Amino acid sequence: MAKTRIESLPEDCVVHVLSFTSPRDACRSSAVSSFFREAADSDLTWRKFLPADYAEIISRSVRDMEFSSMKDLFLKLSSTPLLIDGGRKTFSIDKYTNKKCYMLSTKELSIAWATNNLNWCRKPLLQSRFPESVELIMVNWLEIHGSIDSGLLSTNTTYSAYLVFQVADRAFGLGTLPSEVTVEVGDYKARGSVYIKLGDDKLCLRGDGWLEVELGEFHNNGNGGCQNEVKMWLKEVKGVHLKGGLLVEGIEIRPKR
C-alpha cells in the first residue's frame, strides 16, 4: 500500500505535531495506522504531556513507582494520585488539561485545637489516600488553614481549592451558621460562604466517595518566575455553639474546568 503524504514525513515531525494536541487526541490518532501508532505512543510525544519536573516529583514518592513508558507514566499519574513527601501530599495530573494537581493531607494543614485529643482525633480510614485523616470531636471554634507555594503549580492556569471531607452520622452543629471560605494569593483574595451540611448545593460528591466544597479560585500566571504563597481557609468562629462529626481528608488544588 502506498504511503500517504503524512506518512512520508519523518516520525519526529509527526511527534512534534502530536505534542501540541492532547493525550486523548494522541490515543485516537494511534488507531489511524501503524505509522501514527508509533508516533502517538512514543516517549517523545508523551513526555510533552508531562510536567517538566516530573522526574523530581516522582523521586519524592513514598513507594518506588514502576512504569514501562512515558505514556504509561502519564496514564498512572492521571488515574491514581501519587503519595509524596512522606505521605503528607499527593500529586496527580489532570487528564483533560495536563496540569498539576495536589492534595494536602491534614498533616500539612493548620487546624485550630487539632493537638487536643478532646477536640480532634487522628484515625486511619479505609477510603483515604493518606495514612491518617482527622475527625472533629467537639469545638466551638472551627478553623482549617492550608497553603502551597504557587511555584509547585502549573503556570498560566486557573486553579480552584477544595476542602475534601465527610460528615459523620452523629455530626452536630456544622450547618447552624455558614462557614467562611477564603483563597488568598498576594494582593488577591476570594471570599465566600458555605453551610457544611448534607443537601447544601455547594457540596459535591466526589468519585472517590468523599465530599468537597470549593474554597475559592485563583489564577497562577507565573510571570517572571515570581512565586507566591497560596493561602486557603475554612472557618466558622462566630457561633458559640458546639460542632462535631466532621472528618477531614485534606485540601485539593486542581485546575478549574
TrEMBL record:
What protein name does the entry list? F-box domain-containing protein
PANTHER family, alphabetically? F-BOX DOMAIN-CONTAINING PROTEIN
Top-rank taxon, per record: Eukaryota
Q: Which SMART domains match?
A: FBOX
> Domain F-box: where?
3-49
Q: Which Pfam families match?
A: F-box-like, PP2
Q: To which species is this protein native?
A: Dorcoceras hygrometricum
